[in-house]
Every structure is written in structure tokens, then in C-alpha cells.
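Quick one, probably user error.
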């Protein structure tokens, strides 16, 4: 899926758009949404000649072995070979690097090391003769979701001649569908798609609320030109790895559904006869379901889980000039927007600032490096004085501006702008201290939560980040004169304050002896 900007509804207003298969965001004028991939355009833009799996005759052992070599990336042992090779393995070695594996039995791929290969699909499935096209996988998944009631998939019933619905089919819904008298089969679904979708929308066959059905209908109309595709890609072989070790071959069991898809199409002509149209439709529907099953599992489990690819390699990566540590409470009298940073964290975070001041004191670069790294875990009076000097040089001496937020929260107040007013001089204390008054917005507490910070490195950035100061999130944006939920204190803190007030009131009262 790629990103695209588009409008929904009246451009003068903001709308909450809930689009199936895309991101939910508040759209103000232009919104950023996921765009349905155009597989035909992807096929035409390939950097290598694609291989169509329909052309393989799997009754031949050599053709079956060749197809397997194009599906999997096979490794022997625990090490990854960096020897240049084509995908089929016919051409290997440094002397062949940059050549293309050609010929009738060649894979048509460039001879390069596996680490330099593009993540492109090598194998493609083509709609068999008599079938106008496949349905785009994303649109198929969305339609399947909104046309399933009590495990009865109306989309598959409509397109797959051999679909057997479950026993407990809602009779009222079934009668309503049958009255529509829609054409059956995948071929007719492709030919009469617009009329079928209009009929399903008009007769309220789509599941969900009225707003969801309306947005789904607009979504289907917007991407009408990408709904059908003549070819579907098989995932890149770089993700289908088999490893041989100690005489055993290991593979990821999650590959099974994608493999089922490709063999469903390839085995269609295994007996040498041209299958019937119904058989072709059934095989195509099964292949699309299996590919969707693979991609859904990949998106949900491999890519989007907390330990998945997105969190590990995209959302969880640390850009320059950032820090992260466990938070603790500021116990001394303080302002609500103050921060105190730990010693070792600050030494590395403000390393360049400290180095500039040490250069002005005629320290050599080697002496600066030695001073900073030798004292990152122990107190040094010179570094302490430089920290205080940095804080004093800020406008008004109010503190070094920095944002502090909690990932991956994106709600209002989850990122706020604070002022670093002190660097802790005890290197054994490794927590960021902040006010208990600012915990509610990021939904944090002092039980081990870690927050991320990023210092504002110049006055221009600091001025822009003022819009994220805690007091600007005090009022509710939806209801006038109402305080937002970003303000508040945890219950234990309120109980402690209440007990302290009660105790002070009790002590101040005259008591009889």
C-alpha cells in the first residue's frame, strides 16, 4: 500500500474517515491515506522480466524443481553467502557479477550478492483463459469483510461455483440476496462489477452502520480503476527462506498459505486437459483467499505487532538528538513544565555543546573526548558548571527546551514541551524527573514507564514547540469552557495531599490536655 492525499466530503470541514483497509485519521482539508496498489502498473514497471507460473508444466520433474528454485531462497548452514548469484543458481561467482542469467532455462535475473537484490516479485500468477481478471487483493479482503455474516461469505458464494455455505445461514439475509438475482461466478463479477456493487449498496447488503457503508461505497468507486488486475504477484523469494542444517531442512510455517495459492494455479493444468470455467473460477477464488491469508498474517503478526518489523525498524528507531529513560517524580518545589535529566544521559546528549565550551577553554579535541567519556558515569565539577552555564544561557535562564513524549501514543498531550532546569549531579540516579501534574496527558505514571525526549536545538524550533507546552492542553477542544482530561493527578497523589491537609488541620487545632 502506498500513501496518497485525497478529499472526503466537503473540503471546508474536517471529517473523521473510517476507510476499510486504510488508516483512520482526522482529515482537515487534505488527509494522508493508504492507496490501493495498481498491480498492472507494478508489473509493467518491473526491472526484470517477470516469470508467469501458469506456464510451468509441473508434470515434468525438472520444471517442478525449477519452480521450487524460483519460490525459495535456500541457505546451507548458519552463514549467509555473499557470493554473487542469480536466482536460479546457474551463474555464480564474482566473474559473473553484473551479468543477466538468460537463455531458455535462465531466470533472467542479475547476478549480484543476495544483500544487494531488490525486493521485487519474480513470479506472477496470470488470470487463466476465460477469466477476465483477478480482484485486487486489498479490495477483495475489504469486500469479503463487509459481505460476511455469521461465517457466511456472500462474496465467495457469488464468485466461487463450488462454495459451500455453512449450515446456519441467516434465512432473511439469504432471501434478500437471492431476490437481487445477481449474476454468479467470478467472470460475471468482473463483467458486471459496477451494477453488482450498486445493487449491494442500494439494498444494504454491506454490513456496518450507514456511515461505514457510505464510506466503503466511496472507497470502491474511487479505486475502481485498480479493482481488477490481470496478474497477481507472488511474494519475493527473499522472504521464503529454507535452511538446511544437520541434514534437516527448516522453513517458516507461515509460508504455507502463499504456497497453496501458487500451487492452486499451477496444478490447474496438471492432467494435461483444459479445466472447465467453473473450475478456473474456483481455483482463482481459492488463490486470492490464500494470498490474502498470507498477507493478513504478515501484516498483523510479522509487521504490526509490538515486536514486529514496523515497531522494531521504523517506529522504534531512535533519531539523532533524542533520549529515553524511566520517569520519576519531582519532589522539590517546582514549576509544572520543569524537567531534570540524569547525569550520564545528559553528558552524551549535550556532548557537542559541552565540547564547544571546552574548546573555548583551550582543551584539545583528544582531551575533550577523554574528559567526556571518562566522566559520563561519574561526577565532575567542570562538567557540572558547564551544564549550569548552558541552562543559564537560555532565554530568561528558564531552562533548556525539550519535548517529552510517550510512544506510540498520538493523542493530544502525549508529546509536551518542557524546560530542563537541572542536570542531576548524582550519576547513580538514571531517571528523568518531571512534575506529577503532567502525567495524565501521556497516560504515564511512576511505576517504570519510559518516555522519549528530543531537545530543541535552536530558538526557532523552541518557538514552534511552544504550542506543545502543557498549559495549552488544559481546555477541551470540543466543549467551550470545559477543562480537558489532560489535566488531573493520579489517585495516590490526591490521597497523599488529602491526608497531608487533614493532618495539618488536625495539628493546627487546639487540643485539650
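Nope, works fine. Designed sequence:
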Amino acid at each position: 500500500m502506498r500513501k496518497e492525499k485525497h478529499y472526503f466530503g466537503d473540503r471546508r470541514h474536517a471529517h473523521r474517515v473510517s476507510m476499510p483497509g486504510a488508516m483512520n485519521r482526522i482529515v482537515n482539508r487534505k488527509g494522508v491515506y493508504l492507496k490501493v496498489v495498481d498491480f498492472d502498473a507494478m508489473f509493467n514497471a518491473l526491472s526484470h522480466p517477470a516469470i508467469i507460473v501458469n506456464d510451468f508444466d509441473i508434470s515434468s520433474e525438472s520444471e517442478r524443481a525449477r519452480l521450487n528454485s524460483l519460490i525459495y531462497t535456500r541457505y546451507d548452514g548458519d552463514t549467509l553467502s555473499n557470493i554473487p548469484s542469480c536466482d536460479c543458481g546457474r551463474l555464480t561467482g564474482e566473474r559473473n557479477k553484473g551479468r543477466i542469467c538468460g537463455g531458455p532455462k535462465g531466470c533472467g535475473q542479475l547476478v549480484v550478492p543476495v544483500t544487494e537484490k531488490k525486493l521485487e516479485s519474480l513470479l506472477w500468477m496470470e488470470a487463466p483463459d476465460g477469466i477476465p481478471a483477478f480482484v485486487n487483493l486489498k479490495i477483495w479482503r475489504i469486500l469479503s469483510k463487509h459481505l460476511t455474516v455469521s461465517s457466511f461469505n456472500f462474496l465467495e458464494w457469488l464468485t466461487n461455483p463450488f462454495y459451500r455455505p455453512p449450515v446456519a445461514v441467516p434465512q432473511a439475509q439469504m432471501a434478500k440476496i437471492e431476490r437481487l438475482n445477481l449474476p454468479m461466478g467470478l467472470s460475471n463479477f468482473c463483467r458486471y462489477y459496477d451494477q453488482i456493487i450498486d445493487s449491494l449498496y442500494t439494498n444494504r447488503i454491506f454490513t456496518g452502520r450507514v456511515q461505514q457503508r457510505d464510506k466503503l461505497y466511496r472507497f470502491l468507486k474511487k479505486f475502481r480503476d485498480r479493482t481488477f488486475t490481470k496478474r497477481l504477484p507472488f511474494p519475493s523469494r527473499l522472504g521464503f527462506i529454507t535452511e538446511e542444517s544437520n541434514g534437516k531442512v527448516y522453513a517458516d510455517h507461515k509460508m504455507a498459505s502463499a504456497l497453496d495459492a501458487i500451487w492452486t494455479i499451477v496444478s490447474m493444468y496438471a492432467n494435461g486437459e483444459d479445466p472447465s470455467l467453473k473450475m478456473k473460477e474456483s481455483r482463482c477464488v481459492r488463490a486470492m483467499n490464500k494470498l490474502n491469508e498470507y498477507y493478513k498474517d504478515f501484516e498483523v503478526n510479522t509487521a504490526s505487532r509490538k515486536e514486529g518489523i514496523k515497531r522494531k525498524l521504523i517506529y522504534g528507531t531512535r533519531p539523532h538528538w533524542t533520549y529515553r529513560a524511566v520517569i520519576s517524580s519531582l519532589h522539590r518545589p517546582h514549576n509544572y513544565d520543569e524537567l531534570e535529566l540524569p547525569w550520564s544521559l545528559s553528558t552524551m546528549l549535550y556532548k557537542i555543546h559541552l565540547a564547544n565550551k571546552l574548546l573555548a577553554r583551550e582543551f584539545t579535541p583528544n582531551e575533550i573526548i577523554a574528559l567526556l567519556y571518562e566522566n559520563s558515569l561519574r561526577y565532575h565539577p567542570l562538567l557540572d558548571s558547564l551544564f549550569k552555564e548552558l541552562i543559564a544561557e537560555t532565554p530568561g535562564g528558564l531552562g533548556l527546551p525539550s519535548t517529552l513524549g510517550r510512544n506510540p501514543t498520538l493523542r493530544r498531550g502525549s508529546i509536551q514541551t518542557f524546560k530542563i532546569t537541572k542536570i542531576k549531579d548524582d550519576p547513580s540516579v538514571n531517571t528523568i524527573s518531571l512534575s506529577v501534574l503532567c502525567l495524565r496527558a501521556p497516560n504515564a505514571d511512576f511505576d517504570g514507564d519510559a518516555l522519549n525526549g528530543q531537545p530543541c536545538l535552536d530558538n526557532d524550533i523552541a518557538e514552534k514547540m511552544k504550542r506543545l507546552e502543557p498549559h495549552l492542553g488544559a481546555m477541551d477542544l470540543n466543549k467551550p469552557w470545559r477543562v480537558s482530561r489532560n489535566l488531573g493527578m493520579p489517585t495516590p497523589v490526591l490521597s497523599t495531599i488529602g491526608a497531608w491537609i487533614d493532618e495539618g488541620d488536625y495539628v493546627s487545632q487546639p487540643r485539650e490536655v
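The mean pLDDT is 84.
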